[in-house]
Amino acid sequence: MNIQRRNFLLTAVAFTGMLAHAGKSLKGNGGRIKFGVCRPLSDASVLKSVGYDFIECDVASALMPDKGDDDWKRQRDKILSLAVPLISCNGFIPGRFRLTGPKADFAPALDYAEIALRRAQEVGVKTIVFGSGGARNVPGDYCAKNFRDVPDVEKGLEQYTQFCALLAKRIEDLKDVCVVIEPLRPNESNIVNFVWQGVQICNEVNSPRVRQLADIFHMMMGRESAASIVQAGSLLKHCHIAEHTTRNFPGSDPSRNHYFRAYFDALRTIGYTGGVSCECGWAGEGTFPQKLEKALKTMREF
Predict the structure, then answer these.
(1) Predicted TM-score (pTM) of this structure
(2) CB 221 within 8 A of CB 240
(3) CA dist., res. 54 & res. 275, Å (int)
(4) CA 168 to CA 206: how far, in whole Å?
(5) Residue 156 to residue 133: CA distance in whole angstroms
(6) Distance of alpha carbon 93 from alpha carbon 105, whole angstroms
(7) pLDDT digits (tens, 9 = 90+) for 40-97
(8) How many Cβ atoms from other residues are within 10 Å of residue 212's Cβ?
(9) 35: helix, coil or strand?
(10) Are 120 and 63 in contact (CB under 8 A)?
């Protein structure tokens, strides 16, 4: 266990103990958290009718980095006329690009990413979610010395960090948009599984164009304390949420709503006023608008 990880664990309990008290004392101060949903652009109107603040879509369909300028102009006009603003996009780097391993090739991925980010700037998208497990996962043929079939995740993490740094350099002239590193649970990615790991990358890259995301679903699945949100502090620029047993929408199982509280208390502790997007399934009884209302009501209760 490295020193940074050990120190984090030693302080986690202390952080967690203060969250409920500090978080409750800050509720209602300094603005409010914004709530959105990861959905196709066509759902913007229904999100508006329910009371959501924004919509989040995937990079490929919304920002169209593989399409030319004529296609983009039509898409840009469509985005700018949405009923609620598009302020974040996910699904950043497709799996066809390799960011780690012996076949890593940064150049085409950087070109693709730069187009997406510059288009994001044009339409007011503030955050691009950098999960992209397929592109960043360290392949099995990239093994640590003396460990056959064990991916060299340390080397892969170095490559991933290097890519983030090169990307930040490419877009250093942009003023509003940033990439937010998304930790994914271990069965979806073999590097960057926890918020504290993403924070280390942000600190190493040291650029306002690279910031951090907290996915409350992945945090709960990995048993990561809400203390990580406090540790991230001002580096935290976006959040995702889903119920942790079914990955369904918040409020789909009211008996489990209490699991969210510590994370929202942590957000309020740091004065967070960014976005929280429902990245989840919508199974269950009722119409889609009814389930949207239930999710929004659940999140606002915290």
Answers:
(1) 0.88
(2) no
(3) 8
(4) 9
(5) 12
(6) 13
(7) 999 999 999 999 999 999 999 999 999 999 999 999 999 999 999 999 999 999 999 9
(8) 29
(9) strand
(10) yes
